[in-house]
Amino acid sequence: MTDGYGNINFWGFSPALDLQQTGLAEMSSKLICSIPDELHILIVGAGDFRHVLMTVARRYRHSKKKLKFYVVESALELYARDILFTMIALEKQENMGLQDKTELFLELYGNALVREQSSQYVERMSHELIHMVTDFDYLEEKLPLFDLSALKYKERDFLEGIFKFWRNKEKQLFDISQCWDLRQRQLLGVRYDSKMNAFDWDYNMALIERGGSIVHLKQYKDWRSNGIAFQIREGTYDVPNRTVASGMVFKHEGERYPRRGYWGDMVVSPYIPFGVETEEKSFFKKQNNMHTKTAEDVSEFNVTALFHELMMKEKYELPKVEEKDGKVEDKSAPQTATLEEITEENEEEEAEEKSEVNKSESEENEDKNESAVPEEKSHEWLPLEDVKVIFLPVACTADLVKKAKYKKLFNVVFFSNSMVHHLKPEVSELFADKCSLILETALFMLQLKAEHVQEFVKKTTGLAEATGCKSLEACDDLQDSYIKFYYER
């Protein structure tokens, strides 16, 4: 493994999109055509669930439609993470608050090491996930938006094995710190001893130049060093994040050696999907030509807004900040209590504790002959109406063309830069009569030189035109994360 991108994308290399707005609405305006009431969206190689979550969360902004997502990835570990992150997003308010959901999501999404409580959440959900993947009736009852029936039997078995690994509490099974260091040594070679300078070069000569200046240098270098991107909540990050483990088979002298390790991105960073673009432009304010906020702040806001919109179906607004006596006061911030208030509060707590003790003693006396054990409450998630996610077999794009049920089906098609080579001329048979096509550029592939990024845009544009697509709008090779096309049969 000589490059820093790895062979599996645990996160995307471009910002999250609302696929009803980007591409589809623009195509509808250009062609002056209506959008059908049921949308079929094909997502190939996105690396994560960002486009699905963003599109579903913002569907209230558009006319009511049924949404069907068909997801194709390069590895089953990504399907496992997709389901887990959707479970976090759909946690009910009484089970997990908005801030806790955001912290847990980002921590598991982009960190190599997580807090103990985050690891325990993955362990608890693993039991549910094993039940779901082995019993489709249970899946339909708990998370009916997912459909795994298109997967092969061996792929379902592999998914079950992934969840069983997540459930295992033994830390020595996956020493990600050692994996991270070995990958860094192989990637940097003789530059390893001066790795901070190498990280600084990638940041200043590539990331900033391509629109990632909101990413703070210290945070980027910390992530490159230890794999920890998000530390919103103060705590000890020392437990391996088992959701970023994957298997890989190495060949040596004719023998095959399977190894579990971290084979994902070590250059781009997980800040790109949610941390470099936002509707709240105040995050991009500068002082002395330096950003006052960081990509971690932007990611936290974007994910919080996404979860809020998913639950409340309204736009999320930043807490208002007002000026009081010449000082800035944040209404959302906890206020400092006076000594008198603290004393009164302590007295109230003591009274409540005495009341609870007396109550428990009386209940114990009443029930001393009974030994009933309360049943554990079944976990429930927020329902999503008119949304379906169908996981298709790994890297099956060529096979879809051969199946009649997928012909002329998809209204929106997305290809990542790592799987755009699957965009062959015959893929146009999958496009609906009017279809929008979105291709991810190589803008944030930091190990590519600027001329290679421009060459990539030319090649992918050629692939799209070979399928009969036309450009929806001009693309700036060194500024745009996506190229947009439309297809009209």
Short description:
The chain is α/β, with parallel strands linked by helices and 489 residues long.
Structure write-up:
The chain has 489 residues and is α/β, with parallel strands linked by helices. 40% of the residues lie in helices and 16% in strands. A hairpin with a 2-residue loop joins strand 6 and strand 7. Helix 2 packs across helix 12 and helix 5 crosses helix 6. The protein is globular. The two termini are 42 Å apart. About 5% of the residues have low confidence.
- The rounded Rg comes to 25 Å
* Strands, total number: 16
Distance between the termini: 42 Å
Number of helices: 15
Please summarize the sheet with the most strands: 8 strands, mixed
Low-confidence stretches: 328-343, 368-376
Topology:
Blueprint: H1 20-31, E1 38-44, H2 50-57, E2 66-72, H3 76-89, H4 98-110, E3 113-114, H5 116-134, H6 136-142, E4 146-147, H7 153-167, H8 176-188, H9 195-207, H10 217-226, E5 239-240, E6 246-252, E7 255-261, H11 272-275, E8 286-287, E9 290-291, H12 295-312, E10 321-324, E11 327-330, H13 339-366, E12 387-391, H14 397-400, E13 410-415, E14 431-440, H15 450-466, E15 470-471, E16 482-488
Parallel strand pairs: 1-2, 1-13, 2-12, 4-12, 13-14
Antiparallel strand pairs: 3-5, 6-7, 8-9, 10-11, 14-16, 15-16
Helix pairs in contact: 2-12, 3-4, 3-7, 4-12, 5-6, 5-7, 9-10
Provide tags for this entry:
single chain; 489 residues; alpha/beta; 8-stranded mixed sheet; two-stranded antiparallel sheet; 15 helices; 40% helix; globular; DNAAF3; DNAAF3_C; cytoplasm; cilium biogenesis/degradation; Dynein assembly factor 3, axonemal
